[in-house]
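Board notes (copied after class):
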Amino acid sequence: MKGFSTSKFPIHLVPSRRALTTGRFIVAATHLFTPRLAARFSQLTASGTPAIPYARMFAIRNAALGLGLQRMDSFTRPQQQRFLAVNIVMDSVDAAAFLAAGLRRDVSRTSVMLSTAVALSAVVAGTTALVEHKQAAAQETEPTATAPSNNDWK
């Protein structure tokens, strides 16, 4: 079709995607390599609880999501949008789980506030990335005015 691009959208042009990716790798690194420090930061009890193995599982999941975010340029536009949506859903579920733990009084209020804030910041970054991606993709697919070629006059 003349005037329309069928190429993949360069997701690296979406600034909030970079913030989300960076956040994923920071969470992954801290929870994988220094899980006790991460537990202490979140004011969670590490000794005698499954906090350390859970922190490492959380790290692996965030690393996998971060790697997916880095490789999004190899996805089609609909796949990029679905992957960003998956990130948003996962972070929303995390926020809900942290809030539920607080309501059950499984963890301290401070822990709930810190953990929920981190999860919600990822929801905001993911949502912003998805909105920016859709806006940029819409601009890319808008027909552009082009000068007529000699073949157009025949």
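Comment from the instructor: The chain is about 70% helix and 0% strand. Residues 1-7 have pLDDT under 50 and may be disordered.
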